[in-house]
Amino acid sequence: DAPLLSGSGSGPSAQLAKVLAIIFQRLDKDRDxxxxxxxxxxxxxxxxxxxxxxxxxSQLVGxxxxxxxxKSGRKIAGWSMESLTNFFIAQTxxxxxxxxxxxxxxxFDSRTLK
Length: 114
Hints:
mainly alpha
């Protein structure tokens, strides 16, 4: 299987970083560089198969994101690319199989990450 984490285990592998960048682009429908609440809800729906309650989205924003500056300079509540990466690193450290399953739901091979 392709590694999910870097050799030190503190960051994403090159393969995972590439996949996460593609996922971020797919989710960032308005192309402002921030995953807003609706876009995060879409991510949860893809990975969990059901819509996310607004409380869950607020929790995700609080835990991994916050007020993030968009490409135009506005600040909105959401996730940056770094937030998405940090979420998947934390999830991988806890349950690498869940990460592989989530990546498959975005259309990537869970073993090769391609």
